[in-house]
């Protein structure tokens, strides 16, 4: 048997051990965690909808109508009219013919990639793609070629020298860096080399593009450029679940083939109805997005003036690059001592030597919250000379 205990110990020694905290409040900036008040800068609730009264009311009002559990998978007897309504809402929101509601973004990515590519096909995947895309590639049994992050010359070279069916997969907004994939160039390359482009816009929907319609819309692209988009509802939408949007034929194909759609219990229908409300709120959230942009700009200006290294991102994902895992842990701990919660992100989530604090902003943060973060960062830096900046 493998020595699991020794592996755990090794993780601890390398500063890579992970642990969980118990949250005792809804997702919001001021939280109680493990019995202590903290100001959080690490949630993906970018628009502050996870605790929105209208979305909560939608879920509460739905419960007596729909009951609680999904009951069975969609193809047995779990496909509720609430799921169908959400799918129609999401198809309209994404400007696609059709959408398919999955239980999580992780499952959507695994299901879509393994349904659309198989043995003998080739998948081209950005080196910084999310774990669920990577796992989808593995599950598909296709040949996988990883290209350096957003390197279009490398991608073109790989596409040009590969025969057979080709699938290109990318995050829209990269989850740990916050930058946006060069989708116009990718779409052009896919057209030229007859490849199918799939974009996972988990962090783009709600945050970028007109009315929060995501990275594809942000670039003025449409379904002819990016035939399949995937989004999660657990981030800017503030609920749970995920969706894949594309042509009616493609959704039909996924219903037949995506194993993570077929072989799992349908989400509680009340979550689907709450998500319909969230989609409406996301569209109407221009004031929240403007407020977010102001917070992000100020954070970037002032954190860099303190000497911190930020990454080229103008989305709510604003990582502070530290390098080694211990430095990231030390800064996270120093902030925690000042009542601020920002989780350290370490390998294997990010490459070796690129540990960071992934600071994320929400429209629920105020300028006063940002004051506190910047003050704490300033103080922490003096405590950790040579580490933080
Ligand atoms: N894609 C990306 C880019 C993500 O960051 C995440 C979540 N961290 C997912 C997919 C998975 O989505 P979900 O949380 O709904 O499973």
From TrEMBL:
Pfam families: Aminotran_1_2
Record: residues binding pyridoxal 5'-phosphate: 105-106, 175, 203, 232
Enzyme class, first EC level, given as a word: transferase
Record domain Aminotransferase class I/classII large: where: 37-377
Claim: Transferase is one of the keywords in the record: yes
Pathway(s) where this gene product acts: Cofactor biosynthesis; biotin biosynthesis
Highest rank taxon of the organism: Bacteria
Cofactors (names): pyridoxal 5'-phosphate
GO biological process, one term: biotin biosynthetic process
Single Gene Ontology MF annotation: 8-amino-7-oxononanoate synthase activity
Record bears the keyword Transferase: yes
Keywords per UniProt: Acyltransferase, Biotin biosynthesis, Pyridoxal phosphate, Transferase
Modified residues (N6-(pyridoxal phosphate)lysine): 235
PANTHER family reported in the protein's UniProt record: 8-AMINO-7-OXONONANOATE SYNTHASE (PTHR13693:SF100), CLASS II AMINOTRANSFERASE/8-AMINO-7-OXONONANOATE SYNTHASE (PTHR13693)
Subunit record text: Homodimer.
Known function: Catalyzes the decarboxylative condensation of pimeloyl-[acyl-carrier protein] and L-alanine to produce 8-amino-7-oxononanoate (AON), [acyl-carrier protein], and carbon dioxide.
UniProt record similarity statement: Belongs to the class-II pyridoxal-phosphate-dependent aminotransferase family. BioF subfamily.
Protein name: 8-amino-7-oxononanoate synthase
């Amino acid at each position: 048997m493998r020595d699991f205990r020794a592996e755990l110990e090794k993780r601890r020694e390398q500063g890579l051990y992970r642990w969980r905290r118990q949250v005792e409040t809804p997702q919001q900036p001021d939280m109680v965690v493990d019995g202590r008040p903290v100001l959080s800068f690490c949630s993906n609730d970018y628009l502050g909808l996870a605790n929105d009264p209208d979305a909560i009311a939608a879920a509460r009002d739905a419960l007596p109508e729909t009951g609680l559990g999904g009951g069975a998978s969609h193809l047995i007897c779990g496909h509720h009219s609430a799921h169908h309504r959400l799918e129609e809402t999401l198809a309209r929101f994404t400007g696609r013919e059709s959408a398919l509601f999955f239980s999580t973004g992780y499952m959507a990515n695994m299901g879509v990639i393994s349904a659309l590519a198989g043995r003998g096909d080739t998948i081209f995947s950005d080196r910084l793609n999310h774990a669920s895309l990577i796992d989808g590639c593995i599950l598909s049994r296709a040949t996988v070629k990883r290209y350096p992050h957003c390197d279009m010359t490398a991608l073109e070279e790989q596409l040009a020298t590969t025969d057979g069916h080709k699938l290109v997969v990318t995050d829209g907004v990269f989850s740990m860096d916050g930058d946006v994939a060069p989708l116009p160039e990718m779409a052009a390359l896919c057209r030229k080399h007859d490849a199918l482009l799939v974009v996972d816009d988990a962090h783009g929907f709600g945050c970028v593009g007109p009315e929060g319609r995501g990275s594809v819309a942000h670039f003025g692209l449409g379904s002819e450029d990016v035939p399949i988009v995937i989004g999660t509802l657990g981030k800017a939408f503030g609920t749970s679940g995920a969706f894949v949007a594309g042509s009616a034929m493609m959704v039909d194909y996924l219903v037949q083939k995506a194993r993570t759609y077929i072989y799992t219990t349908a989400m509680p229908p009340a979550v689907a109805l709450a998500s319909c409300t969230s989609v409406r709120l996301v569209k109407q959230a221009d004031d929240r997005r403007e407020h977010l942009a102001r917070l992000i700009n100020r954070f970037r200006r002032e954190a860099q003036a303190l000497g911190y290294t930020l990454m080229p991102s103008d989305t709510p994902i604003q990582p502070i690059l530290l390098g080694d895992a211990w430095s990231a842990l030390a800064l996270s701990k120093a902030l925690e001592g000042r009542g601020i919660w920002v989780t350290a992100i370490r390998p294997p989530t990010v490459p070796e030597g690129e540990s960071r604090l992934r600071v994320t902003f929400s429209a629920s943060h105020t300028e006063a919250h940002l004051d506190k973060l910047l003050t704490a960062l300033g103080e922490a830096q003096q405590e950790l000379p040579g580490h933080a900046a």
